[in-house]
Amino acid sequence: MGGAQTIWSALTTIIQMEGRVTQQAQLLTAQQARIETLTERVIRLEAQMEMLLIGAGAKSPSKRLR
Questions:
Q1: Number of domains in the chain
Q2: Domain of life of the organism in this record (predicted)?
Q3: What is the Cα–Cα distance from 55 to 34, expressed in whole angstroms?
Q4: Mind giving me the DSSP string for 3-60?
Q5: pLDDT single digits (tens) 22-40
Q6: Which domain covers residue 35, as residue numbers?
Q7: In what helix (H) or strand (E) does residue 2 lie, and over which residues does it extend?
Q8: How far apart are CA 35 and CA 66, in angstroms?
Q9: Mean pLDDT of 49-65
Q10: Contacts of 62 (CB under 8 A, 6+ apart)
């Protein structure tokens, strides 16, 4: 009986761990999507800023940084 209980306990632990791993994978996917969205927003803001600066007669920031 002790061996069967040990095996059952191990299987239960594995199932619980699998659930946690799945949950973490879902959270990671959601975080990656947020990061990609924020990256897209930063790119758009940089483009808008560069257009405004060029319109105001300033050098573009990308040329000033080189």
A1: 1
A2: Bacteria
A3: 32
A4: HHHHHHHHHHHHHHHHHHHHHHHHHHHHHHHHHHHHHHHHHHHHHHHHHHHHHTTPPP
A5: 999 999 999 999 999 999 9
A6: 2-65
A7: helix 2-55
A8: 27
A9: 78
A10: 50
